[in-house]
Amino acid sequence: MTKIQTTTRPTSSLKDNRRLRAKLTEVGQPIGIFDSGIGGLTVLKEIVKKLPQYDYIYLGDSARSPYGTRSFKTVYQYTLECVQKLFKMNCQLVILACNTASAKALRNIQQMDLQRIAPNNRVLGVIRPTSEVVGKFTKTKQVGVLGTTGTVNSDSYKIEIEKFFPGIKIFQQACPMWVPLIENNEMDSPAADFFVKKNLDELFSKSGKIDTIILGCTHYPILLDKIKKFVPSNVKILVQGSIVADSLADYLIRHPEIENKCSKKGTIKFYTTDSTDSFDKVATIFWQDNIRSKHVSL
Predict the structure, then answer these.
(1) What is the pLDDT of residue 27?
(2) How confident is the model at residue 288 (pLDDT cuts 50, 70, 90)?
(3) Containing H/E element for 24?
């Protein structure tokens, strides 16, 4: 009987896949930081301060910013497209440094999309890390949240904080004018004073016992000094950047299978979906140094 010889030689497609994996491994895997525009730079800045050894890619979807007033469906679609772009840029770990994206898209991406498009990759947000620690700061158990209309309407902070600290009462206030004021470099204008005071007065009218405020938008730290002018001195103001940086450091310790793949040359690359000139000009407000970004198409 004639024996049929078989071969274990890989097909060309398998060879191509192996070459691609080898190439990606050689290039390394930076940590991806995504924001709908520029505000996420306040988070990236604190992450780099805490974890300077890693490589980072920042992607701002400035062409479609702001996300704050868009529907859940649209924010989810836009965020998923940007996450997939960062995956293609070899980021295995992506941080949504955007409260609106974290509120409207993160859960769907984690539960519905990752297993289908990239089962070994991970996507994290900024709402959960803040929610996990807020109970350490409030004594009255009454907390205020300042955010975009989208973040406030999602009730994401109420939902997340309830999981960790069910006794805390949450009072939310949308601040729709704050982001435009910042991005148009009007932080020191009378208009900025007017809207910051107006929204803070609206927040405290809901409860005079609020002793902790979460800045639930990554733009808002730019207004921190102005916010402090209109807030009682005993009120603690939580800025997300350092909280997210601490949470990421802890995550990497707990997940060595992710950490071991992260490249460590201390580089940062900036990408925008819009004009690089416009992005770089506004980004200096947040980064406090010159940025030279590259344009990317989704």
Answers:
(1) 58
(2) confident
(3) helix 12-27
pTM confidence score: 0.87
Whether 175 is a known active-site residue: answer no
Q: Which of 82, 91, 175, 217 is catalytic?
A: 217
Per-residue pLDDT tens digits for 101-145: 999 999 999 999 999 999 999 999 999 999 999 999 999 999 999
Q: Averaged over 275-293, what is the pLDDT?
A: 92
Residue 96 CA to residue 33 CA, distance in Å, equals: 6
pLDDT at residue 68 in the model:
86
- Written in H, E and C, the secondary structure of the chain is CCCCCCCCCCCHHHHHHHHHHHHHHHHCECEEEEECCCCCHHHHHHHHHHCCCCCEEEEECHHHCCCCCCCHHHHHHHHHHHHHHHHHCCCCEEEECCHHHHHHCHHHHHHHHHHHHCCCCEEECCHHHHHHHHHHCCCCCEEEEEECHHHHHHCHHHHHHHHHCCCCEEEEEECCCHHHHHHCCCCCCHHHHHHHHHHHHHHHHHCCCCCEEEEECCCHHHHHHHHHHCCCCCCEEECHHHHHHHHHHHHHHHCHHHHCCECCCCCEEEEECCCHHHHHHHHHHHHCCCCCCEECCC
The catalytic position among 82, 98, 175, 262 is 98
Active site residue 262: no
